[in-house]
Amino acid sequence: MSDDATVRAGPPGATVRQQLDQTSRLDAVVLGDTGTGDPPPADGTAQLVAVRGPSVGTRYPVAADTVTIGRNPGSDIRLDHVTVSRRHAEVHRTGGRFSVADLGSLNGTYVNQERVESATLEDGDELQIGKFRLVFRAAR
């Protein structure tokens, strides 16, 4: 991209013009990234990273043997949206393995777009709870 770039978007004639200086120069543009692009956490704590929904970019640590997910203010991971049940799901850590269990939620819990009652989680799996999509990043 040149220092004086014109980007055309929308109806014919609509343009956005931006002057780029040396400090704002883009090295790459990523469109439609389905993962987080981040390596797994190195501190031994797994994470759920929000990639879609009201809290995109938020990282939720999965540090305890049982982590509750729901709309309830007392949840370990609070997802405050009407599509999330008060007590929606739990993530369990047994040894070095992780699993998710639905707690009878109205809208269900999905792993990689399949509705599950319970499922083992692997690094990179996508967990959907209501309007939230979270990528599971396993501990190293």
From TrEMBL:
<dbReference type="InterPro" id="IPR008984">
    <property type="entry name" value="SMAD_FHA_dom_sf"/>
</dbReference>
<dbReference type="InterPro" id="IPR000253">
    <property type="entry name" value="FHA_dom"/>
</dbReference>
<dbReference type="Pfam" id="PF00498">
    <property type="entry name" value="FHA"/>
</dbReference>
<dbReference type="InterPro" id="IPR050923">
    <property type="entry name" value="Cell_Proc_Reg/RNA_Proc"/>
</dbReference>
<keyword id="KW-0597">Phosphoprotein</keyword>
<protein>
    <submittedName>
        <fullName>Phosphopeptide-binding protein</fullName>
    </submittedName>
</protein>
<feature type="region of interest" description="Disordered">
    <location>
        <begin position="1"/>
        <end position="21"/>
    </location>
</feature>
<feature type="domain" description="FHA">
    <location>
        <begin position="67"/>
        <end position="116"/>
    </location>
</feature>
